[in-house]
Amino acid sequence: MSDSASINHGSWLVRLKSGLRKSSTSLGDGIAGIFSRGQLDKEALEQLEDLLIAADLGPAMAADLSASLAHARFDRDITSKAVRRVLAKQIANTLRPLSTPITLSPSYQPHVILFVGVNGTGKTTTIGKFAKQLVMGGNKICIVAADTFRAAAIEQLQQWGDRAQCEVIAGDAGADPSGLVYDAMKRAHNKGFNGLLIDTAGRLHNVPNLMAELGKLARVLSKIDADAPHDVVLVLDATTGQNTLSQVEAFLSAVGVTGLVVTKLDGSARGGVVVALAERFGLPIHAIGVGEGINDLRSFEANEFACGLMNLDEEGIGLR
Ligand SMILES: Nc1nc2c(ncn2[C@@H]2O[C@H](COP(=O)(O)OP(=O)(O)OP(=O)(O)O)[C@@H](O)[C@H]2O)c(=O)[nH]1
Ligand SMILES: [Mg+2]
User: 170, 172, 196, 247 — which has fewest CB within 10 A?
Assistant: First the structure.
């Protein structure tokens, strides 16, 4: 790793840890309280399970984690740090297979990625950040303002296009998003773009006609390329905690989500929900948002995340 890369890596880790501090502090304090007697008994395991559920990790994962702790062998008296180590290892093992960055496939001309999610989760911001990463990687990227619902949304995407230095395709406010994405895909193909990122309007996952509109968008794209959209990325706001689970269910059935981006992990006390999402759906986690700036989108790293959540150093749990 070059010096500048390692500096970036370091500052990014600090940022993730400070973002997860609200989650990790309540978990850490809770674990310290439960194991203050140095005993790993039934009562302590039950209390741990309740604590993990309260920290948004979900009942299934909480049960798995306390079961694995019951089987763990401790050399001496159990300490709260040793407990956090066992939990971090197991969480990292669950998350690791899901940490999959999106890469553009050269076989698609263009590779089409549809971004979906409920209102305000960070779709437009994530597209801007991701477009910049792709442009910096030498790709020819176009972003499409298919949130024609609000005029401000089109301007907002245009600003992100300027920052990321990529082309923006937009229509008029109120225009039919299906027609816009159809034209955009043809244009991107003809002009040799290799990535097309489509922004969609935020929609409540429990409003059927809005969800059906997404299915229509996907079908329009597949008329030009049967495999398009090649990725459907659901953007979730970590601060909404357990509600993200019902969002995933609804978007999965409406449009067939292929992967997740989890945003706002910089200030959420609900980072544990990433573990619940992983355990319940097993969907790839492409990236996480850790701030509002253009460089605040990061690949999801399982070990870093697990250690951040348990407030540990990676070296300390032998993950490196
Ligand atoms: N702290 C923090 N704020 C974020 C992050 N991602 C997005 N935001 C903020 O969340 C707010 C909503 O972001 P948008 O990108 O407009 O969300 P959206 O999903 O496109 O919203 P709609 O189009 O209205 O559904 C903005 O103020 C963003 O700056 C993140 O990772 N961390
Ligand atoms: Mg938006």
Answer: 172
